[in-house]
Amino acid sequence: MTIWIAFGWVGFGAAGGHLPELRVGIVAVGCSWGLITDTMRDGLHKALRALGRNA
User: Fold this and answer.
1) What is the pTM assigned to this prediction?
2) Residue 52 and residue 6: Cα distance in Å, rounded?
3) pLDDT tens digit string along 20-43?
4) What are the CA-CA distances from residue 41 to residues 2, 44, 55 (Å)?
């Protein structure tokens, strides 16, 4: 599971689903259950290898 915290004006509210998130004015906290972050990480590694960098 990946958890993130964002600072700045994010408004107020909550979101459910694949990326649950809670927004309280200037702070947002959310999480991902893994599939999305795994896909993003794999894509980043492929892009770095294509640029000739070890990933």
Assistant:
1) 0.56
2) 32
3) 899 999 999 998 777 667 777 888
4) 12, 5, 10
- The pLDDT confidence band at residue 18, using thresholds 50, 70 and 90, is confident
CA distance 26 to 35: 27
Indicate the burial class of 10 (C-beta count within 10 angstroms; 0-12, 13-18, 19 or more).
middle
DSSP state of 9: E
- Reported as type and span, the H/E element at residue 44 is helix 35-50
Cα separation of 48 and 3, whole Å? 24
